[in-house]
Amino acid sequence: MSDRLYIFDTTLRDGEQVPGCQLNTVEKIEVAKALEELGVDVIEAGFPISSPGDFKSVVEISKAVTWPTICALTRAVEKDIDVAAEALKYAKKGRIHTGIGTSFYHIHHKLNSNPDEILERAVRAVKYAKKYVEDVEFYAEDAGRTDNEYLARVVEAVIKAGATVVNIPDTTGYTMPYEFGEKIKYLIDNVRGVENAIISTHCHNDLGMATANTISGIINGARQAEVTINGIGERAGNTSLEEVVMTLKSRYKVLGIDTNINTKNIYKTSRMVSNLMNMPVQPNKAIVGRNAFAHSSGIHQDGVLKNRENYEIIDPTEVGINESSIVLTARSGRAALKHRLEILGYELTKEQLEDVYTKFLDLADKKKDIRDDDVAMLVDDAEKKERRIKLDFLQVVTGKTLQPMASVRLDIAGEKFDATASGNGPVDAAIRAVKQIVKRQVILEEFLIQAITRGSDDVGKVHMELEYDNVKYYGFGVNTDIITASVEAFLDAINKMKV
Ligand code: KIV
Ligand code: ZN
Q1: Which residue's CA is the nearest one to ligand 1's atom 5?
Q2: Are residues 265 and 361 located together in one domain of the fold?
Q3: Which residue minimizes the CA distance to atom 4 of ligand 1?
Q4: 146 lies in which domain range?
Q5: DSSP 176
Q6: What does the alpha-carbon distance between residue 224 and residue 69 come to, in Å, rounded to a whole number?
């Protein structure tokens, strides 16, 4: 049996069925091109009879994409197949994906039919599709709950009718990995002519087992996996491309099966699909979630810094994630902080590092995670130690019906000075209080507050331009408290004045 698994991506068909995730044709082309770059073998581009939009997307994707096979879905209905064939007319390699329900539920309660009639309709649909394209895939909908013996009869008949690929969907996400694997093995062992077609998996995630079922199917002989980016799809979704591909890649020694996927494109394709579909990826999602390669506990961070493989089974760069995996939190140690400082280009002495680390723990108590801007602020703070005029204390009282009041204490060359002032706002009150102490007739030329905001606990940056004695001085302050950042920026500029 071949050791190559074909990746059939159905993000643009099954994935796009998610309510609220519909894409327009231009967006679909963008995704299709990304899938081509990713290296998928088949792109299921839509269900042409379902809407003019789907029809158009299949046409345009067929024109835009070069080497992957473009697939169009149909029911086992002649009109569906005619429309799909028409939509595929520009595809360099086109496939019609036709099929019908084969489980007891579908045969009796959806199609109001019987097993023999369903088998006959399946064969008729495959033969009809063969008139248009050589490559015909048949799906036995709800195969997960279909009796294996009957399923084998259907599979044998459609292969005889010319199906090149037979899809065994676990439509309702019902099976368990050992059952799904046994089902595939049963077909491989019992269907005459099975070697003339590729058996495909198409697993839904209702019990959270889509990837496990797919891998079990592959181990037992399936050589095509139907997947979506980020696992999006009906209800709990489909098997995710990234999980299957990275399982095969990282466990190659055991499984010995390969794909054509350029794994370095996985992360960017995941981001693109998530952004275009407005479908956030859960933070703990395997492979592409925000936390998939994030280490926050001190022990883990230390272990990863000593040797990445202590706590990582996949090198994040293999899936295109190049950011640091060390998340700085209150549990991070000095080694993690030093590592981040080095990445940011700071070389601190042991004493400076100690000072920054103490402040870092203080800040980490207030913030959930510390980003590069925060680290820059801490280093900036450490440098402030050398200044002549330092902020020692600041208290501001403000509110909707209150006149803002600020009390400030400055440390000027070791001596403490206090002042209190009111102002138009809390920043104005604080600056007025500082001015009472430094007694300089400075003019505030420019005042820029930048909230580098991702959340309300983020740091704010303040840039100030002061004029004193016809000379301009620039000051910069960063703090989680915007009033403190403003006073720091003011003092930064004042400290630069020689007179
Ligand atoms: O889940 C399913 O059974 C399907 C088929 C239409 C292939 O999506
Ligand atoms: Zn499906």
Answers
A1: 141
A2: no
A3: 171
A4: 6-276
A5: -
A6: 13
Average pLDDT over residues 373-387: 74
What confidence tens digit (pLDDT) does each residue in 252-290 have? 999 999 999 999 999 999 999 998 887 889 989 999 998
Strands 460-468 and 94-101: unpaired
Residues around ligand 2, an ion, CB closer than 5 A: 14
Domain termination residue (choose one: 332, 367, 382):
382
Q: For the purposes of burial, counting CB atoms within 10 Å of the CB of 268, is it exposed (0-12), middle (13-18) or buried (19 or more)?
A: middle
Residues 74 and 172 in one domain: yes
pTM value is 0.74
| Ligand 1 pocket check for 300: Cβ under 6 Å | no
Ligand showing the shortest atom-to-Cα distance for residue 106: 1
Q: What is the pLDDT of residues 413-454, one digit of tens each?
A: 889 999 999 999 999 999 999 999 998 888 888 888 866 545
As for how many domains the chain has, the answer is 3
> What does the mean pLDDT of the chain come to?
91
Is 476 within the bounds of a domain? yes
Q: Does residue 25 lie in a domain region?
A: yes
Do 236 and 322 belong together in one domain?
A: no
Instruction: Indicate whether 157 and 243 sit together in one domain.
Output: yes
| Spacing, Cα 175 to ligand 1 middle (Å) | 15
Residues 6+ apart with CB under 8 A from 481: 460
Nearest CA to ligand 1 atom 7: 139
Q: Is residue 285 part of a domain?
A: no
